[in-house]
Design a protein that fits this description.
By secondary structure, this protein is an alpha/beta fold. The protein contains 28 helices and 21 strands. The chain is about 40% helix and about 15% strand. Helix 3 packs across helix 8 and helix 10 runs parallel beside helix 11.
Length: about 750
């Protein structure tokens, strides 16, 4: 009888395969359970993940599902049965809350983690309670191959919940379990359907540490004073790598070498404590590629996953259309797979990708979460954390460090008071040798406020300088000022210029600066991070002190002069019609700080005062303005609203659309290729450097003018580029000439 039943219940079939070669359901469940147990080890949730995976497909034991595999066109809910079974087995026992937590993972392993719901929910409403009320096909045949005794739950949890926010901690644990289960289910199914994939075989963290330290040896005998100081910072980071995993800060002024130093800490720290990977989180896609390239050049491209919205491994091919050589093709194949679950030593990603994954509910976004456990997470430019979500963001980081063995490094020149958003017992450890002394050493810019100034007078000041940088808050203001500059040696920079255009412009700027030729640049904040240009004089429109500090880092950057000059001004301009609210608020706080620190506005005390004012002006609710925490602070810790939280948590509120720019002959050839290729995603990847992201209203304005062509029914490209793309300032938006309040 058992053999007959065993041969009749299958998990998956293959087209064209005889039925006897289909995958047995019991094999899929056991294999998935073992994988989930393995994937849950670093997160400390092995037993929970193993049990959830063992029952996730119990609904496939129904005769109806087996008929579906044989080709009958019927719908079968196979995801609810396992959840109902666990809740039935453990009802009324101390394990009932844990069974409910696993139920979220089981019912959601295809459709995503649901909200809890309430007693009025009806079958079909999509909540957990609604799913548990849903009638399912008879799945009782599972009892022939599995027993309830195998569905084990732990008697004690290893996590320490956040005081007064137990639900948040349980929700985070649920996501970790969900991650291990869906990754195990996907990989086990993929192995049956497609065979083994080249996953997880990379150089060890130890070998990468040795290679990185060997590279750092070139800095062992610095000569210049600035290089001596950078080396001291790096050595301090390596020395402190022996500290136990936890919370760290790295407070280094712009130009102090924090990128190399932070990675030196991370690799040595991970090796010392058996951590599994490094995750480098960067706020801007405009600088992520150059940071990733630094690491790739040192550690090898095959060990670095670059994962953000502008990167797609789909259909990666050589420039001539031929298949890549076997070795290179294998590297790309492995990296593409690693993008699914981050099973790779080093990940370079964005704030958006990282934080939205932590609050996602869909299986595709959550698969990576279990691989964040036991990682070193470096948050570059930590002052750029999404201010409206500070509490949920910092609570999530607290969970990773406190309960899942990670270390977090908050890396910036302008360290915000992040302790405000952490439980009171947490105090990050500083990695830099002496931040105040570093600020004293790198004090290379005199900052002076010149008050309100008209565009006419400001343009006069800029034209009177041979080499000068001016950074403003809006794109319209940048273009308006640029139009008034002397034409020779003047440049404009904003994200209305495609990346290739910006790169070419920066190369021209760097060349003119090095040759001491006239060079006047007006830019939006695109110049404030990750750009190593060095001007003798700078002007900055009033904004937050953190941004002013970043702008000052482009003045006398290499300390070749005794000091540089940075002038702060308040625009009196017809081009500034509207400034984003948070910039206006930050500017007002900066005025207050300038009154307190007129002689040292770029200093640690001034920065601390800025953040103290900034945070005190807001109500606690302003730092969780969509009440994400409220999705988990219910009367019972297992009443969790995952779908609601995922829908609310959006680092970038307003979606953008990418428009391809026919910038040069290479772009034109690629556009033509896109029209004809069977591999559009490969061509799109090559077109990324020729694309500009704009907001929907800007896209509509261009489209109404007939300036947009849709290629292959999907991909917008600019036409009439002579009318709508300026060779100096980039994309021209018909309604506003460049955007009133969009500041990049």
């Amino acid at each position: 009888m058992e053999d007959m039943i065993r041969n009749h219940f299958y998990a998956h079939s293959k087209n064209g395969e005889e039925k006897r070669n289909w995958q047995l359901l019991i094999d899929h469940l056991i294999n998935s359970s073992r994988l989930a147990e393995k994937f849950g080890q670093d997160a400390g949730i092995s037993q929970l993940a193993s049990t959830a995976a063992l029952v996730h497909d119990l609904g496939k034991y129904s005769l109806e599902f087996q008929q579906r595999l044989e080709g009958r066109k019927i719908r079968v809910d196979h995801s609810t049965a396992g959840a109902k079974e666990l809740c039935k087995i453990f009802k009324g026992t101390p394990y009932e809350p844990l069974a409910t937590i696993l139920a979220y993972c089981i019912v959601g392993h295809h459709t995503g983690l649901p909200d809890y719901g309430d007693s009025s929910d009806l079958p079909g409403d999509g909540t957990l309670l609604a799913r548990l009320k849903t009638a399912v096909c008879d799945y009782s045949h599972f009892q022939v191959e599995l027993s309830a005794a195998q569905f084990e739950l732990p008697s004690k949890l290893a996590i320490r919940p956040i005081k007064d926010h137990w639900g948040f901690s349980f929700a985070f644990m649920t996501r970790m379990i969900f991650s291990a289960v869906v990754d195990a289910d996907f990989q086990e199914t993929q192995t049956y359907m497609q065979g083994e994939k080249p996953r997880g075989v990379y150089e060890s963290i130890e070998k990468l540490r040795d290679r990185y330290n060997s590279f750092l040896g070139k800095f062992d005998a610095p000569v210049r004073e600035i290089d001596i100081k950078r080396t001291q910072t790096m050595r301090s980071c390596i020395e402190k790598a022996s500290l136990n995993p936890g919370f760290f800060t790295l407070t280094v002024p712009t130009g102090g070498g924090k990128t190399l130093s932070s990675m030196a800490f991370a690799l040595n720290h991970a090796t010392r404590h058996g951590l599994k990977r490094i995750i480098y989180v960067i706020p801007f896609t405009t600088i992520i590629e150059q940071n990733a390239k630094v690491f790739k050049d040192i550690l090898g491209e095959e060990n670095i996953l670059e994962h953000h919205s502008n990167f797609d491994w789909e259909g990666k091919r050589a420039e001539n259309g031929e298949l890549l050589d076997n070795q290179t093709n294998n590297v790309f194949s492995k990296l593409k797979l690693a993008a699914e679950n981050w099973d790779i030593p080093i990940v370079v990603t964005t704030n958006v990708q990282f934080f939205e994954s932590l609050f996602a509910n869909r299986s595709s976004r959550c698969r990576k979460l279990h691989n964040i456990a036991k990682s070193v997470i470096i948050f570059d430019e930590a002052q750029m954390f999404p201010r409206d979500y500070m509490y949920p963001v910092m609570y999530a980081i607290r969970e990773l460090v406190t309960n899942y063995g990670a270390s977090a490094v908050f890396c910036t020149a302008t360290q915000p008071n992040l302790e405000k958003f952490l439980p009171e017992e947490i105090h990050p450890i500083e990695l830099a040798p002496d931040p105040q002394e570093l600020y004293n050493f790198y004090r290379r810019v005199e900052v002076k406020s010149i008050g309100k100034i008209s565009d006419h007078d400001l343009i006069g000041k800029l034209n009177s300088e041979d080499q000068v940088l001016c950074i403003v808050n809006t794109r319209a203001h940048a273009k308006g000022l640029f139009d008034g500059l002397d034409s020779k040696g003047s440049y404009h920079l904003s994200t209305l210029m495609c990346p290739v255009h910006r790169l070419e412009t920066m190369m021209d700027i760097r060349d003119r600066l090095s040759k001491q030729l006239p060079c006047r640049v007006v830019s939006t904040t695109v110049m404030e991070a990750g750009v190593d240009l060095d001007f003798p004089v700078g002007y900055r429109a009033l904004t937050g002190l953190d941004s002013i500090n970043q702008a000052a880092g482009r003045v006398n950057r290499e300390m070749k002069r005794s000091d540089g000059k940075m002038f702060l001004f308040e625009p009196d301009s017809e081009f500034v019609k509207k400034v984003p609210k948070y910039i206006a608020q930050s500017a007002e706080i900066t005025r207050m700080v300038l009154r307190e620190f007129p002689d040292e506005p770029i200093s640690i005390p001034a920065i601390q005062t800025f953040y103290n004012y900034l945070y005190s002006l807001k109500d606690k609710r302003d730092f969780d303005f969509k009440n994400i925490l409220g999705c988990f602070d219910k009367s019972q810790s297992f009443m969790l609203d995952f779908a609601d939280a995922a829908q609310k948590f959006r680092v970038i509120e307003e979606a953008t659309l990418s428009v391809i720019i026919p910038y040069n002959q290479e772009a034109l050839l690629l556009i033509d290729e896109l029209k004809n290729t069977p591999y559009p995603f490969s061509t799109l990847r090559k077109l990324q450097p020729f694309s500009v992201s704009i907001y929907e209203q800007e896209y509509n304005a261009l489209n109404q003018k007939g300036a947009i062509e849709i290629i292959a029914d999907k991909f917008p490209a600019l036409v009439n580029e002579k009318d709508y793309y300026h060779p100096k300032t980039g994309l021209i938006i018909p309604t506003s000439g460049g955007g009133d309040a969009l500041f990049y």
